[in-house]
Amino acid sequence: MARTAGSHSALTAPRIREVAQSLFARHGFAAVSMRQIAAEVGVQVGALYNYTADKQSLLFDLMTAHLEELLAALDAEPMPDDPLAALEAFTRFHIRFHAERPDAVFIAYMELRNLTPENFAAVEALRHRYEDRLSAILAAGQGSGAFRVEDPRIATMAIIAMLTGVNTWFRQTGRLSLGDVEAIYWDMTRRMVAAQG
To answer: Which pTM value belongs to this model?
Structure first.
């Protein structure tokens, strides 16, 4: 039987986000109803509106929370001054961070089309802040002669797409450990941009 609205409210809000994230990742945003989310959480559907205005707001909150967490984690990551060392640190960070959050990553990339224009612009601004960090590393390496990069912005998009792709196939129970994957992807990333092999 569903709990009444307001019961265990400190636990309900995080549980709504957790359930919505799982359902959106599994079935797609468009296919999931607020009624499904409520049923999975164990509350009346009307109780959801004590925590979120609507499904769009819930999607936007999930995306922005993921990106803000990503930016905060990157800020906490020691980043060397040397462009090659900084690129390695970024590469390894990106793979580790995203591998631990497959549902959030899937939603952040695949559900952009379901955001309203205003929400899309806000999410894109957060994404650009993250991408700008890699672009700055590549531009510094280009300036020092350590990297052969025609356009740091295009190289940024290519590298992030390649690194994020790990989430589509990596499994903890697979042949390679996450550390193995980091090392292989770092070698590929280095070869893409290094002035010398």
So the answer is: 0.88
Q: What is the dihedral of CA 62, 64, 69, 71, to 10 degrees?
A: 150
Tokens of 127: 């994404």
Among 20, 19, 4, 16, CA closest to 48: 16
| Owner of token pair 């590469």 | 91
- How many Å apart are CA 178 and CA 62, to the nearest integer? 25
Helices (H) and strands (E) in the chain, counts: 9, 0
Nearest to 53 by CA among 28, 19, 16, 1: 16
Contact predicate 67/123, CB 8 Å:
yes
Pair of tokens at residue 179: 């550390």
pLDDT in tens, 48-93: 998 998 999 999 999 999 999 999 999 999 999 999 999 999 999 9
Helix/strand/coil for 3: strand
Decide: residue 36, CB within 10 A, 0-12 exposed, 13-18 middle, 19+ buried.
middle
Look at residue 174 and give its three-state secondary structure. coil
Show the DSSP H helices in 77-113 as ranges.
83-99, 102-110
Q: What is the DSSP letter of 147?
A: B
Structure tokens at 17: 């986000």
